Amino acid sequence: MSPISILITIAVYFAVLYSLSYITGRKADNAGFFSGNRKMPWYLVAFGTIGAAISGVTFVSVPGMVAVSGFSYMQMVLGFAVGYLIISFVLIPLYYKMNLVSIYGYLENRFGMTSYKTGAWIFFISKMLGAAVRLFVVCVVLQLLVFDPLHLPFILNVIFTVGIVWVYTFRGGVKSVVWIDSLKTFCLIVSVGLTIYYIGKNLGLNAGGIWSLISDSDMSRTFFFDDVNDKRFFWKQFLAGVFTTIAITGLDQDMMQRTLAIKNFRDARKNMITGGILQIFINLLFLALGVLLYTYIAQKQIDLQAEGIVKADDIFPFLAMNFSPVVGILFIIGLIAAAYAAAGSALTALTTSFTVDILESPKTKTESQVTSIRKKVHIGMAIVMAVVIFIINLLNNDSVIQTVYKVASYTYGPLLGMFVFGIFTQWKIREKWMPLATIASPIICLILDINSKNWFKGYEFSHERLIFNALFTFIGLCLLIRRKEGC
Question: Which domains does the chain possess?
Fold first, then answer.
């Protein structure tokens, strides 16, 4: 595909996106922006949740990781499903009982204002980094396929990409996000499914042949129980999946904001359980696609190094754009559907949390003043996101999906520790020291992570570092319990 045809594809998709955003958000007030007026149907949110949990990172990275990791990622995905169940029966009833707009209001109620602000700032840093990494994937692909051939700099790419996200979210907020998530899910399923079909057809395979190829491939090995030091070890991946989902979904304003837009907690629970189950099948599609991609490379004897492909994340974009125009268009639609919707919901959640939690505007300002502040914050969040993406481009040296989970383990771990302590204990703490506990735990975890091979007989941390991060935060809060009470 030529750079111009790619831009035309993006323009057509964006026109649909903006039209949907305009229709759903034209009458949105602040309550509509922040919580969708609590009128969103659960089945629509559930369908959108599938896509909401799958970003451009998943779209690009998961197929590429199959050669090294096989289907081991499914161990983590099974943990995701369990995590969704825990969110459904523990966190969602709590949030609805407290009638929260921002979920970090729970921390104020349980501990006090310092904890509330600490949780809000942790979310802000976590989501900004995570959203920037995810949108960075799109920028890299667009740079390769569009901006480099047109001799345009990366900074212009970033401004273009973030600008699109800002335009379609500034009006409707979460009301628009829920509908756009549903469009994104539809585009993802169609694009991945048809890509599998076309590659399988090129390899001379029907549906049964595709199934046999994948099931017989060494790359489809799913469970790893034999070596605890292996990053693919089952219990590392599964438990990390459980706690990662609780942290980056149940304790994430972005993911929970759309759920809190549903009328009541029973319907919200249906949404969460349904979305968690369906996500298993969607991730299987991405992994199946990975096997087909590597099989195609082997049969066609493509020399990736000679083509300048050195990262696993670059394999799917390269093959998609060189396979056929149809697959190229499907890839572009799937990528932008995944990335723009994820970035849009993140930008909405960052705006909500900063306006409601950090500035506390709804508590002290009139409706018109809150609207003015919210719009300014929205612009500010877009600018910060663009700056972070540019910095990530200077520092990037890893598989992006690994980077996302590594960032999440260090930033969401303290948040998980705070909520677990608050929900499962009744102890009061010396709250002014709360920020110290949330800063100390990632530092301790980083030290252990760096030295784990030498200190623990070759053991390497994987995504379970989030669990240790939460545990260290919990222990730190135990040390802050008021003297009249014991731990």
Answer: 3-398 (1.20.1730.10)
